Amino acid sequence: MLAALLPFAHAHAQESASATPSAANAQKLSAADQQFLQDAGQAGATEIAASKLALTHASGRQVKEFAQRMVADHTKLARNLDVIAKRHGITAAPTADSAVIGSLENLQGAEFDKAYIEKVAVDGHQKAVALFKKESESGNDTALKAAATKALPVISHHYAMAQQLARAKAAS
């Protein structure tokens, strides 16, 4: 739904170590907020990469339309999170979950549709809703908490769309 960002946490740790004490304190994110950025970044990067695959590998028109929407929405969300990450000195770009992408790369047509809907559309958004809900309720960084709160309705709508897509595919 949204978000590996391990390089984000690693880059943050390296930059904080080299920054002056006052700059490090100003940029410090809580461990929970760092984890949110990492998880959200990876989820978003995975969604974008898998959805771009869907544009060429999927057979269903509905699946391709869903994928186009996911690329657009998750790219916008990723930009918003990147701005906040950069404010905290985190500049490494998130990477997609290679296991998920790898499991989709060699699939085509209906087989791809089924795997994409299950692994990315439904499961991915279910996890993203929980992730963004948690951050919106208990995040420490005001900007991250606000970004999660703003993104949550969009990601929740994606999850509902994914469930509808899964039902439509199961019925056909």
Automatic annotation (TrEMBL):
It holds the Pfam family DUF4142. InterPro entries: DUF4142, Ferritin-like. Residues 32-165 form the DUF4142 domain. Transmembrane segments: none annotated. Coiled coil: none annotated. This is DUF4142 domain-containing protein. It comes from Caballeronia insecticola.
